[in-house]
Amino acid sequence: MECDKLKIFVCIKQVPGVAEVKIDAKTGKLVREGVLSIINPVDKNAIELALQIKDRKHAEVIALSMGPPQAEEALYEALAMGVDNAFLLTDKEFAGADTLATSYTLALAIKQILKDSGITEPYLIVCGSQAIDGDTAQVGPELAEELNLPQVTNVQKFEMIDERIIVESILRPEEIVVLETKLPALITVLKVINTPRFPTLIGIVEAYKEKKVTHLNASKLKAEKVKIGLTGSQTQVWKIFVPQQKGEHIKLSGSINEMVKELCLNLKEDKILI
After folding, report:
1. Cross-sheet strand order for the sheet of 175-182
2. Contact 101/229 with Cβ under 8 angstroms?
3. Model confidence, pTM
4. Long-range contacts formed by 209-214: CB under 8 A, 24+ apart
5. Are the C-beta atoms of residues 29 and 240 closer than 8 Å to each other?
């Protein structure tokens, strides 16, 4: 492993800044025009982990993202943080992709990069646990399935020994497991795993002057049109909306027994409790 460069792929997504998210009342869709876009927060933790591995091992970190041309901004930020190479999967035919179509497209890109590099050595894929806009936590696991890789999700601690990784994964708040697997593999990480570094001034200058974001479209990836974009999506979002508050807040008082009794009566009236 030490004689060859370990390739570490990091999948990132450009999302609307949380405080800026707005929903069009008529269409029910997110308003993205004029809204600040950022790297999905936990994807920065994925970048940081990849860079920490690179600091200790002979490794190349490659960032991947799928989105419109303006998603380059997120990839240049990743390059400024220390990522070596970046690829943007951008094509009108990718538009409307759900998590399944997205993972298929990302898998094609990873396969193509590995093929072009002539890499036969094990590699690692790191993803954030989930994106703040879709919040599905599906792309990482689906990508692992597309590539037929072992996967570990919700990783909070990570260690690599030769071609093995040992990780601590949170299954439930009260259930933490330690798992070991061989590379190649895919993991999704939680925010608690590390604190992402900030791009340095030198890093920003190098990113824009000495590095570049390579664009990959459907033709370059030899993608099957029935598996990409809206056509390849098995799910569709009909509407996004902010639930309207109904009713008034009820403040309970009295002893514990009295408050429990009153609460149960209210739940029964609302047909929540039978």
Report:
1. 175-182, 164-172, 151-161, 185-189, 123-128, 6-11, 59-66, 85-89, 213-216
2. yes
3. 0.83
4. 211/76, 211/79, 211/84, 211/85, 211/86, 212/86, 213/72, 213/75, 213/76, 213/79, 213/86, 213/87, 213/88, 214/85, 214/86, 214/87, 214/88
5. yes
Please name each of the domains of the chain with its CATH number.
6-227 (3.40.50.620)
Q: With 60 as the cut, is the pLDDT of residue 3 above it? A: no
Alpha-carbon distance of 112 to 137, in angstroms, equals 24
Residue position matching structure tokens 């071609």: 163
Is the pLDDT at 1 greater than 50, yes or no? Answer: no
**pLDDT tens for each residue of 130-173:** 998 878 899 999 999 999 999 999 999 999 998 999 999 998 87
CA distances from residue 194 to 99, 108, 205, 214 in whole angstroms, order as listed: 26, 29, 25, 28
Q: What sign does the dihedral 248-242-36-84 (CA atoms) show? A: positive
Q: What is the largest CA-CA distance in the chain?
A: 72
Residues present in the chain in total: 274
169-206 burial, b if ≥16 CB within 10 A, otherwise e? bbeeeeeeeeeebebbbbbbbbeebbebeebeeebeee
Q: Pairing state of beta strands 164-172 and 175-182?
A: antiparallel
